[in-house]
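Box 3.1 A note on notation
Throughout this textbook, protein chains are presented in two layers. The first layer is the amino acid sequence; the second is a token string describing backbone geometry. Keep the layers aligned when reading.
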Amino acid sequence: MPPSVPGRQGIIRTGSRILEWNNRRAGEYAKARYGTFRGAILTCFTEATVERLMRLEEDIINGQDEDLIGFKTSLASELSMIAVAGAILAQIAITALALQDIEDVHWIVRGFFACGLAMGLLSVTFAVMQQRTMGNLHKASSIRAWLLANSCNNPVTNSRDEKHNGSFTVAFLTQIPYTMIEYGSVLLIVGLGLYFGYAWKRNLDTESGAEDNRNVFIMYIACTAFMVVQWAFAYFSKSIWRE
């Protein structure tokens, strides 16, 4: 029998515990490997990369050759998806920069759209570069060597020493295209919210009137908030059942 879904307060408290547990686990790993100071810095600013590095070491690097080949296929699919999403994100940003009366709102709105455009383009570029790198790795041994932290200095053997540590650089390179998609999406969503807000406050659409501008702004905020809450509820619920 699946556990019953807790109430709103239970979801919030349990979600907070899960996030705290994940943060503590990543923090402990980073401090054990890189030292207290460097580990704290890495956990604070690149937590997603640290978590990805942990998964690489636990599931891929010390796994079988089939695991490495599967990782390559999975990463290639992920990068293809990111490239498509980045292209769509860039197209939306270009369209947003041509919105009606965009020059009459605060410059920060165009700044958000421009940054979203840059994030979309860079995510596509970095994803393609990573796909090209993965395409040159034809053997499981080559993939493992690429994932290892010091494979350039030491040969890959069967002994269990420093060579089994995953490369933070590789984890960061494979994580950054997705991170840019996240940041770009947030920039566009916030930028659109600011655009609708300024359109209401400055009454830019004189034909429809201030009330219509206000209503559009309220509907945008309500719809965005509702979907974010829905996603957060599903995410925390899944985490609760998994843990």
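Confidence is low (pLDDT under 50) at residues 1-6, 11-21, 153-163. The CA atoms of residues 63 and 217 lie 51 Å apart.
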